[in-house]
Amino acid sequence: MADAGKIKILFVCAHNACRSQMAEAWAGHLKGDRIQACSAGIDARGVNPIVVKVMAEAGVDISGHRSKTVQELSGISFDYVVTLCREARENLPSLEGRTKVLHCQFDAPPEAAAKAKTAEEALDQDRRIRDEIRVFVETLPDALRRA
Questions:
Q1: Is the whole model's pTM more than 0.90, yes or no?
Q2: Looking at the domain that runs over 7-138, which CATH code has it been given?
Q3: Max alpha carbon distance in the chain (Å)?
Q4: Which of helix, strand or coil describes residue 55?
Q5: Which of 18, 52, 80, 84 lies in the 20 to 30 Å Cα band around 46?
Q6: 125: closest CA among 49, 51, 46?
Q7: What is residue 146's three-state secondary structure?
Q8: Phi and psi for 112 in degrees, rounded to 5?
Q9: What's the rounded Cα separation, in Å, for the pair 6 and 33?
Q10: What secondary structure does DSSP assign to 86-110, as a single string?
Q11: Element (H, E) at 83
Q12: Where are the domains of the chain?
């Protein structure tokens, strides 16, 4: 996983199905020259197909991504770990090395979509969260260094 000169960031959410997958993809797409991104979950439930769809709409293909647990990445040293939900923040296992852990809360796409009245409104919730994560990733790595 080593890529000389790049900052290694692990994005973690509860299931590595939505938020962390989007963050990893955005980091690679927007900041791949400076960031080596990976994602994982407290458990792994598979990549949400709706997230694959809304990321594709934005020009980012994550159809080849797979859901992973934090334990699967043990032995890898990250510069930063960014938890993206309360469950990940509260249940993050200890990590190797001198990793700095930060938290940035985002809504869970399935929960946000479930409150919608129509299928299109549900997709709009997924798109909103996708775009909020993109805005956050655009601040990296500078925002991490200031934290």
A1: yes
A2: 3.40.50.2300
A3: 48
A4: helix
A5: 80
A6: 51
A7: helix
A8: -65, -40
A9: 7
A10: HHHHHHPPP-SSS-EEEE-----HH
A11: strand 80-83
A12: 7-138
